């Protein structure tokens, strides 16, 4: 990417914003959604610079950044769904999972702040990202500042549900795994999304119950 003078100047002014965002984190394995031109077109240049400067920042901070920006399009941005980050910028980063699969995830807590967190599967076709499966993981207390960062809060597994609605999550851009971490004490909320598709046998899912067993839950290539 070409670093223009404008871009660098924006990063400099952003340092004051990011220093306020002292709690934050993001999916690092698999890597969560990243900003790109689709994000810039929907949420505006300032939001794009903000996410390029630090992907970890909070949604309330983004709301302040986009306020009064001419190129912020609220009907396409949807900051409360995956921080507004877009599938179109992440088409090459779609995971493939089977129903019932155990999925190891890494969410890096770049700086803790006491809150609560949970992981859902969301329907990306709705503006708010309707929850299809909730509490795949749930922490009543997350990233407490009164204890060292818990390894189990950064490295953990979820299980892909076997009962997602039929015809959902079959194509990229339909569903995401969303981490939601809210730190009420500082009025900051963080999200990170992983795009995925579900492939593999599930009688409940695709009506092929007659086959009666998993076809292949083994390692398979993405995009087969
Ligand atoms: C779980 O995450 C969803 C967003 O994905 C959020 O709306 C909900 O408030 C969260 N629940 C808790 C208990 O944190």
Automatic annotation (TrEMBL):
Signal peptide: 1-23
Region of interest: Disordered: 203-224
One function term, GO molecular function aspect: metal ion binding
Chitin-binding type-4 domain span: 24-196
Cofactor(s) needed for function: Cu(2+)
Keywords assigned: Copper, Disulfide bond, Glycoprotein, Metal-binding, Signal
Record's keyword annotation contains Disulfide bond: yes
Pfam assignment, any one: LPMO_10
Family designation: Belongs to the polysaccharide monooxygenase AA13 family.
Name of this protein: Chitin-binding type-4 domain-containing protein
Source organism of this protein record: Salinomyces thailandicus
